[in-house]
Amino acid sequence: MRAGKILLYAAAVVLAALPVVPVILLFFLAFSEHPIYVEGFTLKNFEFLKTGVLFSDHPLYSRLYPNVYTVMVNTFLLALGNMLLVVLVSSMAAYVISRYSFKGRSALLGAFLVIHGVPASVLLIALYYMLKATGLLNTLLGVVLVKMSVDLPLGVWVLKGFYDGIPWDTEIAALVDGASRVGAFFRIMLPLVSPGLFAVGLFSFLSGWGEYIFVYTFIQSSTNWTFSLLIQSLFSEMGGINLALVAALSIVYLIPVLAIFITGEKYLLRVTIGGVKG
Predict the structure, then answer these.
(1) Is 235 in a helix, a strand, or coil?
(2) Are residues 76 and 47 in the same domain?
(3) Reported pTM
């Protein structure tokens, strides 16, 4: 029995270490003097933080890549725009689906599930022509709208579970006290589902922050690149792959994600799909 527990704990430690090992290797490689493997210690790989220019000692290469800070702003705008739109639309759509009975309600919920389950790659051609027809191709706004439409079904389902968990008596009491339906929604319902809004907002932000396939397909101008596209482009760099530089960029790319999780971890642990744990 004791041997079984030891094996179980050992397996749990190994499984928990699997995601951590690549991050540790990434960290050591980012400070490596050698461009391919870990050797020595240097801060040279982070020199781009001074001016945002990659390959500053190679004028030809430096002109091929956008400024890192421009890329950072683009990535933040994509993530923030996706988060705001998903939270805004899903909070209202989920409320209507939860509180109103109308024809086609079940079909709409089923459609959300189907849309969420469709691989993004299947939609690329159709979305490309839609963005081209509307003049949104090669713009961050076009990518934000596409990303929002993909993440929206999950947000609606999560928030619907939160609205379903709120008793009707709470909303009716607000209406009896003189609040309008809109007022009750903003002053009563939204504060009660704030943990769900936080969860949906967090996942939407991280989804936008890490987006690659839509950026790669719909963005051609390097001035609109995001971190994911910049890092991918370095693997085809003509002078050979500098893995140490890629690791340094990846560390910078990873810092906001870690900061968000550290800040919101305790709050997220209280969240369930249908409400908040006590």
Answers:
(1) coil
(2) no
(3) 0.87
Q: By C-alpha distance, which of 221, 256, 229, 251 is closest to 80?
A: 256
Cα–Cα distance for residue pair 174/121, rounded to 1 Å: 46
Residue 275's H or E segment, with its range, is strand 275-276
What one-letter code names the amino acid at 145?
L
Q: At what angle do helices 140-164 and 68-99 cross, to 10 degrees?
A: 40
How far is the C-alpha of 86 from the C-alpha of 207, rounded, in Å?
11
The pLDDT score that the predictor gives to residue 266 is 67
Q: 268 and 218 in one domain?
A: yes
Owning domain of residue 196: 68-240+255-276
Mean pLDDT value across residues 235-251: 80
Residues 58 and 116 grouped into a single domain: no
* Pair 146, 85: CB distance under 8 Å: no
Q: Please tell me whether residues 82 and 200 are part of one structural domain.
A: yes
- Answer for the pair 30, 251: CB distance below 8 angstroms, yes or no: yes
